[in-house]
């Protein structure tokens, strides 16, 4: 008899398949009651520790963790049917929580730990409206690969402003604010700290020094870890946990930085809200906060008392050492959130090639002029810098309420799409023109130095 | 062995798009008859066979098997056995499984199937090959398996689609005889498609010669050979010499013709004929005799003078190509040891008995 | 009189050709069922997502979003970049595949099967992991560039910009061309080549004028597949941080948090349309050119013997290409054993710990992958066989639209399909349970089924095309109805093609990521590809992620090898003695 010849061999898989489908359907219903399900953007290194600890403390309870990218996680919560949504949303990006709250997908409840201070710097730790709670703190800073720095003979940077130096050209990496909430806050912090025009000057110049604008926020630390990039603009735990995992990594907080909470919240219409509240309480309790010190996690607890038991050398945001000099205004940040993202993408992310070319020309010209000074050349170079690093959107326009309305987070009708795409087109083509012109001017400046 | 069945086609027409494949086919195959469909490729003979098997459906007309209209009966309910040109043996089954297939489909008891498979394989002398795969058999053996597989179901009608075309020449003659023998013994109504006139003539009781979707002539092999109704049949069944001629008169049972080669000749009138028409006068190559021009003319023949253009020695006979007037004739003379040949360029007298001359119109 | 009669009956019967006209009721039912399946799990879900591209705020129909799209010069640039990358990837992939296929089929070659099998390995590399490994080897600070820098002081920008995308895509997708080309070359009758040689053609001219034109249909089939896959591919540009292409633009806009940007969906619609046009055009170009030249009793191309010099050249070239092609695999293998691998040619030290971690944590994922992809591939083969039968053996009206629908799945981005599923089946319960369809793994499995159906369908169609129809007619003639004939004759004889379809569907489903991330609803339901993605999200997870990736590759490779063995022994059984 041949291998495939008989009727039974061809029929059997079908029977097995349908049996599987049925039996697995049954299996689900059997243990559906004692499960708390958590949607998160955090890596398994973090969630696994919490899952284990919580399950050990509550026998019979299963923690079901769904690790997804932030945007996929939001989409998942939105698309899940009411009454069957996951229970807990746990992620860094405050904007994700804002979106969920505004769509009534989060459930208010009285679950704050009273020992957690109201604010870190100017930033409220818990949502003032009570939809979500800060669970850990994160500060933004610079991580670098020590081997890369040594091989390329790069000095260690200390401040954001250091990153615009010619020496770091093509050694830096950052993510885009539209893709990474942490990057958005970094950009917003710089803009609030330096003012609109000066802030953009810095952001654009850093962008010009970047080897890549990554799509995922993890793309930056990943690239630094494996030596693709020298320096990355990252959230602290990326740097700290990489160092703890044995990578040749250093991390510092610059003096102008924002420390903001990573949040946890209860999802509205959750399947198992009581268990969810219990889990959130656990995450905010000293016991849950202690877990953040795990080397692979390396996050900053929101409970100040925890730092007494912290490992040696662990940064303490409440100790006054890392002080956020900027008075961060969350309301301002929220109002122009989408504008900043879109402006960054259309002038930096999508025009990166031209921006880098302009930056390179400017660095070259300034190096040549340094060795052979030339007044006219200096003037041209100044002009080139001015053109390349001035934002295409004015500080006045970004305060215009009518203009900001275009970017409110609701469905877009045809008119809105048209206006917004026209703006995108204008920014994109203007940026491109500016970068090309700057490159030209810098080239002329360099020629004068000969 | 079983009930002999009649197959009848009435006014059958088939077309694919604009091409008419069969036009107004009327045909009766008698019970127990060995019937051949003979024609060149594209003549419609295979379409007609597949129609009987049920793989094609006619746009119009009726098909009767054993007096029952089967036009709307699917192939698997017709009990018509077909042997395919490429045998269509299933490569994933053994010889035994191939032969048992049809019996299994008829839900027969296991013991009955075993006995019938055994019998069918014995019939074609392949009993000891039952466990082989078709790929392990020679062409002739594969052909017999195909036959056994078909006969095992004891079909009412046996259809053979060019069954011998994939065999080499020697084997073909052998299988032909076997087939004929088998059919005689079983007495099963058999329809046989072929493009080889020799195959058809040697095996079939009757032949339908087909061309362009039409049955050109239907008759016994001898009938077709001796009295072809048109040039197509005359040329397709055996070879023939055709000489142009004009009818001068036809009365009192005598036709008078004039021909550039044969001069004025008179023949007995065998059918209605129109006068003052050009037609062909035909005769078979073996029917004529050659003589030296000066020798005495023996027999009652029509005579003509010609020049030998070429000859070929074919063993049993010598084939002469003879130029007569504007025509070139082929004339076969039996060969006997010691007979002298007519040399190329020598003049010869060609004698044809009037009984061998055919008038061919159309 | 007879003429009158027949004229009368012609008018009474429908004027159709009548070939295979029986059992249309059952065939119609099967066709309807398949059509319903595809509508429910492909057309409707995709429709619910892309309708945004045509919807105004009030829900009305509008083409204004398309208008806005065409005003963005960024989009034109993205379109041209995507097109450029797709075309160049096809060229580069051909450059890799052509010599591999030609050498191994055409010459007596040690290890030809090994080379052909290794050549398929890139397909079973999870794209995510592949790019990470490629960065470690070819990136700015990858092994190759570190060595080049040390030796010659140069740094090749292999992985930068569009060129990097082309490089990775070509290495990943060239097997589609290789596989199709090997089959096509094997099907060329040796008499074709011999008669050309007999008439004086040899060497390159012989290849250019006879062999390549005859293998053209296989090449075009593979090349068009590569074109569409590259055109639609999202993962590679994103990992390489190239955003000025259509797929990343669509993805970035669709997945921005809290914004429903219609332009993203406009891009999706245009990409689907463009891919369909490309597939349709290649099918049109091939119509009537599928020369299956292997005659009955004919033999495929004779294998020539290489001269020593030629051998050295050929083996060197093949070794180089294989090294290039397998570099991602070498990369993840090293990574899976590496303690720390950062800015160095090779990892600092090696460990087995990552495998221990994976075996401790992820056994469920391995089982899940086997289960989901197994069922999905099985369903694909069943659907593929049924559709192939309907299009090749019946004259059902609209039967080709089934083919078209099933093949259209090739052009649907995984994210779009996944969001469509979540929307379409929101609140739908699995029959007889209170479990929701959206929170079970069934949707994930169905997404795999739909997305990989085109592969299985192609294999099944090819297998059935090679099956002479008289084999089926013989069965019908002996009393087997349509269903019995299919079960006893068609399916066993198509088994080889069905198995090939199963393997392709299975192995590509096993490394599917985009739909997986959206549709995985719990850790216990997660397949391996999800686990790899998850591990790769943290610094400490790279090792275990790579280890799981190696296991995935091994799993699929062993499966492929086994099915090749079964196929081979079966093929020998069926053909060699013919």
Give the tags.
heterotrimer; A: 450 residues; alpha/beta; D-Maltodextrin-Binding Protein, domain 2; 11-stranded mixed beta sheet; two-stranded antiparallel sheet; 17 helices; C: 578 residues; mainly alpha; MetI-like fold; 72% helix; 0% strand; disordered N terminus
Briefly, what is this?
Chain A is α/β, with parallel strands linked by helices. In chain A, 48% of the residues lie in helices and 14% in strands.
Describe the structure.
The complex is a heterotrimer of chains A (450), B (362) and C (578). Chain A has helices spanning 7-30, 44-57, 70-79, 94-102, 146-151, 181-194, 196-209, 219-225, 236-244, 273-284, 286-290, 330-335, 337-349, 352-371, 375-388, 401-405, 414-448, and strands at residues 35-40, 62-67, 88-91, 106-107, 119-120, 123-124, 132-145, 172-175, 210-214, 231-235, 249-252, 259-267, 300-301. Chain A contains 17 helices and 13 strands. Mean pLDDT of chain A is 84; it is low at 1-32. In chain B, the strands form four sheets. Chain B has a six-stranded mixed β-sheet with strand order 6-7-8-3-9-10, with helices on both faces. A five-stranded antiparallel β-sheet of chain B has the order 13-12-11-14-20, with no helix packed on it. In chain B, strands 15-19-16-17-18 form a five-stranded antiparallel β-sheet, with no helix packed on it. In chain B, helix 2 crosses helix 3 and helix 2 runs parallel beside helix 4. Chain C has helices spanning 2-12, 24-50, 64-71, 73-106, 112-118, 127-138, 143-152, 161-186, 190-198, 203-232, 235-239, 246-254, 262-286, 308-337, 353-361, 363-393, 399-408, 414-424, 442-465, 469-477, 482-510, 514-519, 528-535, 542-576. Chain C has a domain at 76-251 and 289-351: MetI-like fold (Orthogonal Bundle). In chain C, helix 4 (73-106) runs parallel beside helix 8 (161-186) and helix 14 crosses helix 24 (542-576). At the A-C interface, helix 1, helix 2, strand 2, helix 3 and helix 4 of A face helix 3, helix 6, helix 16, helix 18 and helix 21 of C.
């Amino acid at each position: 008899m041949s291998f495939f010849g008989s009727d039974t061999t061809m029929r059997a898989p079908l029977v097995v398949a349908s049996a599987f489908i049925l039996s697995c359907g049954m299996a689900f219903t059997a243990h559906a009651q004692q499960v708390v399900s958590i949607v998160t953007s955090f890596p398994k290194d973090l969630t696994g520790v919490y899952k284990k600890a919580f399950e050990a403390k509550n026998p019979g309870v299963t923690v079901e963790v769904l690790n997804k990218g932030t945007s996929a996680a939001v989409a998942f919560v939105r698309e899940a049917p009411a009454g069957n949504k996951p229970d807990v949303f746990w992620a860094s990006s405050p904007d994700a929580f804002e979106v969920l709250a505004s769509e009534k997908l989060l459930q208010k409840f009285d679950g704050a730990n009273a020992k957690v201070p109201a604010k870190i710097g100017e930033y409220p730790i818990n949502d003032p409206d009570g939809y979500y709670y800060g669970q850990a703190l994160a500060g933004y800073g610079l991580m670098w690969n020590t081997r890369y720095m040594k091989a390329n003979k790069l000095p260690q940077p200390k401040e954001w402003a250091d990153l615009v130096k010619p020496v770091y050209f093509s050694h830096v990496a950052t993510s885009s604010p539209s893709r990474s909430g942490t990057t958005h806050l970094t950009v917003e912090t710089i803009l609030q700290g330096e003012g609109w025009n000066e802030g953009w000057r810095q952001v654009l110049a850093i962008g010009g020094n970047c080897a890549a604008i990554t799509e995922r926020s993890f793309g930056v630390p990943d690239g630094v870890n494996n030596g693709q990039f020298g320096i990355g603009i990252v959230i602290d735990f990326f740097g700290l946990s990489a160092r703890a995992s044995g990578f040749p990594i250093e991390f510092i907080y610059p003096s102008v930085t924002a420390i903001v909470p990573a949040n946890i919240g209860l999802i509205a219409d959750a399947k198992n809200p009581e268990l969810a509240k219990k889990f959130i309480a656990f995450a905010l309790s000293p016991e849950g906060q202690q877990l953040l010190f795990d080397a692979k996690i390396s996050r900053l607890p929101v409970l100040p008392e925890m730092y007494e038991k912290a490992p040696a050398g662990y940064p303490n945001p409440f100790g006054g050492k890392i002080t956020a000099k900027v008075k961060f205004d969350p309301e301002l940040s929220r109002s122009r959130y989408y504008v900043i993202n879109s402006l960054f993408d259309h002038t930096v992310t999508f025009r990166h090639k031209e921006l880098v070319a302009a930056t390179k020309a400017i660095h070259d010209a300034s190096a040549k002029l340094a060795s052979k000074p030339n007044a006219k050349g200096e003037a041209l170079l100044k002009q080139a810098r001015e053109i390349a690093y001035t934002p295409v959107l004015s500080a006045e326009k970004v305060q215009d309420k009518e203009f900001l309305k275009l970017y409110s987070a609701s469905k877009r009708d045809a008119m809105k799409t048209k206006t917004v795409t026209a703006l995108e087109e204008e920014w994109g083509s203007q940026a491109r023109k500016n970068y090309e012109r700057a490159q030209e001017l810098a080239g002329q400046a360099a020629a004068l130095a000969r | 062995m079983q009930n002999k069945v009649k197959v009848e086609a009435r006014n059958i027409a088939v077309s694919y798009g604009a091409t008419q494949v069969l036009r107004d086919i009327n045909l009766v195959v008698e019970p127990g008859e060995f019937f051949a469909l003979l024609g060149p490729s594209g003549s419609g003979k295979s379409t007609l066979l597949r129609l009987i098997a049920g793989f094609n459906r006619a746009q119009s007309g009726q098909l009767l098997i054993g007096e029952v209209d089967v036009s709307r009966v699917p192939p698997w309910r017709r009990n018509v056995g077909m042997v395919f040109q490429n045998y269509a043996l299933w490569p994933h089954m053994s010889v035994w499984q191939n032969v048992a297939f049809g019996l299994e489909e008829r839900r027969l008891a296991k013991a009955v199937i075993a006995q019938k498979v055994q019998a069918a394989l014995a019939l074609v002398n392949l009993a000891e090959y039952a466990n082989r795969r078709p790929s392990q058999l020679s062409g002739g053996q594969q052909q017999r398996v195909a036959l056994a597989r078909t006969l095992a179901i004891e079909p009412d009608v046996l259809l053979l689609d060019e069954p011998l075309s994939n065999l080499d020449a020697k084997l073909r003659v052998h299988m032909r005889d076997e087939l004929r023998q088998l059919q005689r013994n079983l007495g099963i109504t058999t329809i046989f498609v072929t493009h080889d006139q020799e195959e058809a003539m040697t095996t079939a009781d009757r032949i339908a010669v087909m061309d362009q979707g039409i049955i050109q002539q239907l008759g016994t092999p001898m009938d077709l050979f001796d009295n072809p109704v048109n040039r197509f049949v005359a040329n397709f069944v055996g070879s023939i010499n055709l000489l142009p001629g004009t009818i001068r008169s036809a009365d009192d049972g005598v036709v008078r013709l004039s021909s550039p080669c044969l001069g004025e000749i008179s023949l007995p009138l065998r059918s209605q004929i129109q006068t003052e028409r050009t037609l062909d006068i035909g005769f078979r190559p073996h029917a004529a005799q050659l003589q030296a021009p000066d020798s005495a003319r023996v027999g009652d023949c029509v005579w003509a003078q010609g020049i030998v253009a070429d000859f070929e020695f074919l063993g049993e006979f010598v084939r002469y190509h003879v130029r007569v007037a504007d025509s070139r004739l082929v004339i076969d003379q039996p060969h006997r040891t010691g007979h002298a040949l007519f040399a190329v360029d020598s003049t010869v007298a060609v004698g044809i008995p009037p009984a061998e001359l055919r008038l061919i119109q159309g | 009189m007879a003429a009158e009669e027949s004229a009368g009956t012609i008018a009474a019967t429908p004027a159709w050709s009548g070939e295979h006209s029986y059992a249309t009721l059952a065939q119609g039912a099967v066709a309807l069922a398949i059509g319903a399946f595809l509508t429910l799990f492909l057309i409707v879900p995709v429709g619910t997502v892309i309708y945004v591209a045509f919807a105004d705020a009030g829900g009305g129909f509008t083409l204004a979003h398309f208008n806005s799209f065409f005003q963005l010069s960024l989009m034109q640039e993205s379109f041209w970049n995507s097109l450029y990358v797709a075309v160049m990837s096809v060229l580069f992939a051909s450059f890799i595949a052509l010599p591999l296929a030609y050498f191994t089929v055409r010459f007596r070659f040690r290890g030809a099967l090994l080379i052909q099998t290794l050549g398929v390995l890139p397909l079973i590399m999870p794209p995510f992991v592949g790019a990470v490994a490629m960065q470690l080897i070819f990136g700015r600070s990858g092994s190759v560039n570190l060595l080049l820098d040390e030796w010659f002081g140069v740094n090749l920008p292999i992985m930068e910009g569009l060129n990097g995308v082309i490089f990775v895509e070509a290495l990943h997708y060239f097997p589609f061309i290789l596989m199709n080309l090997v089959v096509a070359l094997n099907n060329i009758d040796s008499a074709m080549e011999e008669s050309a040689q007999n008439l004086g053609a040899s060497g390159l001219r012989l290849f250019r004028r006879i062999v390549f034109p005859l293998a053209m249909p296989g090449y075009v089939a593979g090349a068009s597949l590569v074109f569409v896959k590259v055109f639609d591919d999202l993962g590679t540009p994103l990992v390489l941080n190239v955003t000025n292409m259509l797929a990343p633009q669509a993805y970035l806009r669709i997945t921005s948090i809290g914004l429903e940007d219609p332009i993203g969906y406009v891009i999706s619609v245009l990409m689907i349309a463009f891919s369909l046009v490309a597939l349709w055009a290649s099918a049109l170009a091939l119509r009537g050119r599928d020369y299956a030249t292997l005659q009955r009793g004919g033999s495929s191309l004779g294998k020539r013997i290489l001269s020593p010099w030629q051998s050295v050249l050929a083996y060197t070239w093949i070794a180089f290409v294989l090294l290039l092609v397998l570099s991602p695999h070498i990369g993840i293998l090293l990574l899976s054993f590496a303690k720390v691998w950062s800015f160095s040619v090779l990892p600092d030290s090696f460990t087995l710990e990552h495998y221990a971690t994976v075996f401790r944590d992820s056994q469920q994922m391995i089982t899940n992958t086997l289960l989901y992809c197994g069922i999905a591939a099985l369903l694909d083969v069943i659907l593929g066989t049924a559709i192939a039968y309907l299009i090749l053996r019946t004259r059902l009206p609209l039967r080709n639209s089934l083919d078209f629908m099933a093949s259209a799945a090739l052009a649907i981005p995984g994210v779009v399909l996944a969001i469509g599923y979540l929307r379409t089946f929101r609140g739908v319960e699995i029959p007889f349970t209170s479990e929701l369809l959206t929170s079970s793994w069934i949707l994930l499995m169905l997404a795999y089924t739909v997305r990989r159906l085109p592969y299985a369908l192609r294999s099944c169609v090819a297998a059935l095309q090679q099956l002479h129809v008289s084999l089926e007619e013989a069965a019908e003639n002996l009393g087997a109805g349509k269903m019995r004939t299919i079960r006893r004759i068609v399916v066993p004889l198509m088994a080889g093609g069905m198995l090939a379809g199963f393997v392709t569907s299975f192995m590509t489903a096993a490394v599917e990521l985009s739909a997986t991330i959206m549709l995985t609803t719990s850790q216990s339901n997660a397949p391996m590809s999800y686990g790899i993605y998850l591990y790769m999200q943290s610094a400490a997870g790279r090792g275990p992620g790579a280890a799981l990736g190696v296991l995935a590759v091994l799993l699929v490779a062993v499966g492929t090898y086994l099915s090749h063995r079964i196929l081979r022994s079966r093929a020998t059984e069926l053909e060699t003695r013919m």
